[in-house]
Design a protein that fits this description.
- By secondary structure, this protein is α+β, with helices and mostly antiparallel strands.
- It has one domain (2-93).
- The protein has two helices and two strands; from the N terminus they run ααββ.
- It has helices spanning 2-18, 26-42; strands at 74-81, 86-93.
- It has a two-stranded antiparallel sheet with strand order 1-2.
- It starts with a helix and ends with a strand.
- The mean pLDDT is 81.
Length: 96
C-alpha cells in the first residue's frame, strides 16, 4: 500500500518539477525539492482537502457587484516559485 503513495509522490515531483529543471549537483537538487515541497504542501489545492487550499489567505474582499471583477482597491498578485515554473496567486490591497 505504501508503495503506491511513494510512486505517486515521486511521479508528481518528476512531472511537475524535475522534467523542467536540471539539478547541477546534490545541493541544488535539495534546494529545488525543498522549495517544491513547500509549494506543494502549502499553496497547491489538494483533492483530499476539498475545494480549499491548505493555508487559505486571510484577506477578506468586499463584493464588487459583478462576479468577474474584483472590488475597487484590490488586485491579484503573483509570486514566482522555482524560478517561474509555477506561480502563487493571492489578493492584496492596492497602495494608493
Amino acid at each position: 500500500m505504501a508503495n503506491a503513495y511513494c510512486e505517486r509522490l515521486i511521479g508528481t515531483i518528476r512531472r511537475e518539477c524535475l522534467d523542467y529543471l536540471i539539478p547541477l549537483n546534490e545541493r541544488h537538487l535539495k534546494r529545488i525539492l525543498r522549495e517544491f515541497i513547500t509549494y506543494y504542501n502549502r499553496h497547491r489545492p489538494h483533492s483530499a482537502l476539498g475545494p480549499g487550499f491548505p493555508e487559505p489567505n486571510q484577506v477578506t474582499v468586499p463584493g464588487s457587484g459583478h462576479r468577474h471583477r474584483l472590488a475597487a482597491g484590490y488586485r491579484v498578485a503573483k509570486t514566482p516559485v522555482l524560478g517561474g515554473l509555477h506561480h502563487e496567486y493571492h489578493l492584496e490591497k492596492e497602495v494608493a
